Amino acid sequence: MNLTNLNFSNPFPSRLFLKPINSFKYITFKHQINIKNSFITHPIRAQSLSHDNTPIEIDEVEDDGFVLEDVPHLTNFLPDLPTYPNPLEYSQAYAIVKNTFVSPEDVLAQQIVVQKGSPRGAHFRRAGPRKKVYFKSEEVKACIVTCGGLCPGINTVIREIVCGLNNMYGVNNILGIEGGYRGFYSKNTMELTPKIVNDIHKRGGTILQTSRGGHDTNKIVDNIQDRGINQVYIIGGDGTQKGAAAISKEVERRRLHVAVAGIPKTIDNDIAVIDKSFGFDTAVEEAQRAINAAHVEVESVDNGVGIVKLMGRYSGFIAMFATLASRDVDCCLIPESPFYLEGEGGLYEYVQQRLKENRHVVIVLAEGAGQEYVSESANANVEKDASGNKLLLDVGLWLTQKIKDHFTTVKKIPINMKYIDPTYMIRAVPSNASDNIYCTLLAQSAVHGAMAGYSGFTVGPVNSRHAYIPIGIQENLVVAVTWLLSRHATCLEGHVTYWYGKIDRTDGLLLVVMTNKKKQRTSNRTPRVPVRFDDHVVSSLGHKRTQKDDEVHVKKTVNGCTGETDKIGKTCVLEREENVDNTVLNKDVSGNKSNNKETSKTSDVSGSLSQYGITELEKEVVKEAVGCDNGPDKGAHMDVGEDGVDKNEAEKVNSELRDVHANTDNETAVKTDSVNSNKEEANAKEDKTKKEKDVSREDVGNKQVNEEDGFEVVNYKKNGGGEERFKKPNYKPNTQTQKFGPKKQGAGKEMYVPKNVQNKSKEVSSEVNTSVATPQKENTKENAQNKIDVNKSASGSKKKAWSVQNEILEALRRSANKYSALETYDENEISELQEMKNREKVDVFIEQNRKPTDDEIKGWNIDMQAYYNQRVKHMVDKGKKSVVNMATSGAEKDDVYEDNTGIAKCMKEENVKGMGKGVLEGN
Ligand SMILES: Nc1ncnc2c1ncn2[C@@H]1O[C@H](COP(=O)(O)OP(=O)(O)O)[C@@H](O)[C@H]1O
Ligand SMILES: O=P(O)(O)OC[C@H]1O[C@](O)(COP(=O)(O)O)[C@@H](O)[C@@H]1O
Ligand SMILES: [Mg+2]
């Protein structure tokens, strides 16, 4: 594959780079084309913004970073297509409006906050009726299809497409394709008239039915051709829009006079660029009912713990917004922000604290949160639905059981657990009033766009004005937006006293939540307290579990269930004989069989019983293994004097572990005298151990295996590296320096800017990602120094823009929410800055879709490598096949790196096909 014509430094496909809005008739465009973001490759319309056959003077002039994210038009491949006057010209309703038609030069700025001299950024064509249309009304044969999951408002969109086509353009021939994409070739169509759809907006779901999978581009386009359909309206989420892009591409290949319009649908609100997705408001509103119910339940009992699971596969918008709206929620867990259960700052500790303060706690949980824990715990393979989406395991059940086990068994605190899963109930309701209006605008925008000859586009509001957006432009931005959100608002404490919020799509959603709680902070950020070696928690001593730890030590069968302990007496891996009565193991305090479905769920998932729901057995087995009954309860995990485990070392660790639990238990009066008397001694030991470890870390570099205990010592700097850093018990994301995760729009998109402002804009865009604007930042090194200086003195900043942010940072520090705390810089943070800088280096490769060469990798430390792999994996997981460019770096652009993820293949097939059409050739 020859990729010499591709310039990988510019990731933006098919865009025009124009002069500012006040000089539209001058146009200049770059020939640097990269195919990263778009699902579609289509020729650039080099003429101008006009699709009205009005010639506009083209001139090569200096641009100032104005980018038009243009949408394809039928005249791109059917240049002689005739135009007709828009029938709206004669419509009574429109005749009274002054500016009936959208000017071809109207565009919407994605960035509404700009600085003098900064690049203008991305713009989109304004949606709305055009003066000329490319279809005769009587010749239009439209069809509507709905795909993917349900969402409130789908029926409203269907209704308004039908009514819009009919009322505004006099179109009478509209078909409904039943059952999603597969319906094109496997089902009859249904006729849609204004009368038929008149009442459907009052119903949830979709009257056309929906499905996942079954997308066969050729069969679908054959069917479109056979039926003489010339306008296709496709309502669906990210998967559906990819399918729409494929259809549009095939239509173009066959040179058909068919307009393909997408209406983005997702209850998860994970589509970037647009302000929000339809049905989202309704979902948040509906979620209130579940949260209210949970709150009422738990405040009516003693030690009530309510868990409400809401939808959100990869993003936690519903959970976050429902939480913010409710004010009854103590903690909100979302997929973008890892959490942990045990140890300092863990969820258990927080729940206990809230129970103590408030006697009840409400947790809202997005279904995608903590999936890695659940699948590990349930020992289940990741399954996929027909569309290839990851099937989620029930994190709500898992968490319910985990918390229940922890408090009843470990803490000996009886709790009243109430778990509510309203997910499908929320999705199935009809859209509310404001969503109905929104759906109507979306539908009408789509109709106007298709009539105007655009094809391969989606619609949606950008800064509250509706726009036409190229399909696929959304994909890179989703995570960045949610990431930003999550870094700042992971956990809302019940009595949030004030919060600073700013909702601005240009910058993503920035939401900082603060509480009036004083953060308990140790002088050294290295965790001082050894924690239980849980599956997911990396030990505070820098130990990482190795396979050796998983060797079976004791196996025992109790009541038909078999459990094993590993050498450190940790967890049980359990199997269950058929027909075992789990009621023995799952009873509430009244002796009633627990209503939770975890037992059956667990065995459903893997055929074997996983850790939850079986704590009695676990206890039995560990008791046998360790010789006392405080194994899993009190964290005495190291077996003494057996299997090569050093007795003294084991004693020491056990003593530390007991001490930890004594400390954490002191509020619940479970500690023992002997533990008390040993406390100081244990602390001293612990400090000593920590110092030794620190020294040994310096000595060993990045990695070392401790022969004695089989642990691999990993030098994770402060809080760990790669994925593991999030599992560290004391990990607190530093929002200030956070560079992890895909970049936010702007930063991630590598906005084109003229050379003279390039450096400056780079600073700005990268700062968007960190939520702290440092527009005058000179270079990373200097900035790092500034950050440190600024943090030492809130008012002493030399940099104006920086100091404004600094006030917020200082405020955060003073009243930090421990789940998203910013802290004073210490030596560890300096190393974090270094880490951040390193990660910035890695970001460059990701942004350029470039695989590092062996030589380049040699200069990378373990964290950089892990970070690179994680970002690549993350993007592949999200189905961003085109994200990772497999061309090797530097001059060897001819080569395509083939890997077993199929990414290179995907790139070749999906994107490089644009070559030969004038799209990809340089000038
Ligand atoms: N990459 C893709 N290319 C073509 N069609 C796709 C693609 N991904 C998903 N689809 C199709 O889109 C439809 C809906 O996708 P799905 O992911 O289930 O829901 P949603 O569109 O709501 O995200 C399915 O029929 C599926 O086959
Ligand atoms: O309807 P299903 O197949 O159970 O899928 C549930 C999923 O659908 C959603 O509601 C929406 O997902 P899509 O937008 O991809 O259709 C997710 O929140 C949820 O995880
Ligand atoms: Mg989807």
UniProtKB/TrEMBL annotation:
Example GO biological process: fructose 6-phosphate metabolic process
Keywords assigned by UniProt, alphabetized: Allosteric enzyme, ATP-binding, Cytoplasm, Glycolysis, Kinase, Magnesium, Metal-binding, Nucleotide-binding, Transferase
Bias-annotated ranges (Polar residues): 583-594, 766-783
Site (Important for substrate specificity): residue numbering on this chain: 239
Regulation: Allosterically activated by AMP.
Active site positions: 268 (proton acceptor)
Residues that bind substrate: 266-268, 311-313, 367, 424-427
Enzyme class: transferase
Binding site for Mg(2+): 238
Domain Phosphofructokinase: 142-448
Pathway: Carbohydrate degradation; glycolysis; D-glyceraldehyde 3-phosphate and glycerone phosphate from D-glucose: step 3/4
Entry's localization field: Cytoplasm
Subunit structure: Homotetramer.
Protein name: ATP-dependent 6-phosphofructokinase
Organism: Artemisia annua
